[in-house]
Fold each of these.
Amino acid sequence: MKQIIRLYCVVCFSLILQFGFCQTHTLSTEKASELAIIGTSTLHEWKAVAGEVRGIPETISLDGDLLSIDALTISASVESLDGGRGPSMNSKIQKALKNSTHPEVTFVVTDPIQMNMAEQDSKGYPIQGELSIAGETQSIELWTTVEMLEDKIHISGSKDMKMTSFKIEPPSAMFGQIKTNDDITIQFDVYYISN
């Protein structure tokens, strides 16, 4: 048994020497990742959080200050968006986002992402991708920040936009007395832990 343990240690040490000190981080199950659409209306601020998000990379690599993420497609189910104010609001969100014909919001990044954390400025890193909402697709630049928290990595970002730029009519309620403003923010938070 001791020989097996020694052999295992030698192999691990050899791999570390061969591949450097590249660390892999795994998607955290302790702290939930979140994708949300945030906006305002004539009555209050609102936040619709996606309950079903697919495509978040399970692992990322950190080699010194260089963070690497493979190309990705992240999608959120429109039906899973919860505005926190009950089924009526959720139904209005789904209708505005044309859920019956376009059931997902997607963000596609076709090239691998390389972020040098030593060169991060106050805005973070620009990530180029294709955002599709309600059947409309646009190329966007999503500013993303990376924060080291002890054994965790927190990746977050946001993008301000207008609903009408995606041909979405801002929803209203109470016979037009409550109107949603055109400006929205797409926001995300993802947490990874060291392996």
Amino acid sequence: MTLVDLSRRMLAVSRELNPTCEHVQGDMRSVRLGRRFDAVFVHDAIDYMTAEKDLADAITTTLEHCGPGGLVLLAPDHATETFASSTDHGGSDAPDGGGATCSEWSWDPDPADTTIRTRYSFVLRDRDCSIDVASETHTTGLFSREVAASARRRRLRRNLDPRAPSRR
């Protein structure tokens, strides 16, 4: 399995969790690995594509890396057709006395654009029972299923068009 991420820090975490996998630093909109795979899976990282061109470029990258008869699976957290403001929470305690809780709040401040916001708040308890609180807000893309399907169809038509530039 080959894992790609833009962030060196995320790749370091992934190497700890997935030591038998190949790790490559790259941007999902432009990375070219020079080989094809039976399956290409992009989970919630696709959410960080906030412009339609970025989404189309990421879809092109997945299709470029998918071999004949292969499978592409894009799994964004939200789509325009089903998005609703929401909250969620969770947490756990560690055996050493540490623990963490997280709350999440997602909303669409401007339904006319292609982004939403999610605010994460964390309460972290160290094993000495000291507490730290942190929060961050993420802006992510929100597209209709048709926008994603249209980008995929444009790319596939380009692959089938004999007048299209040859692929390297």
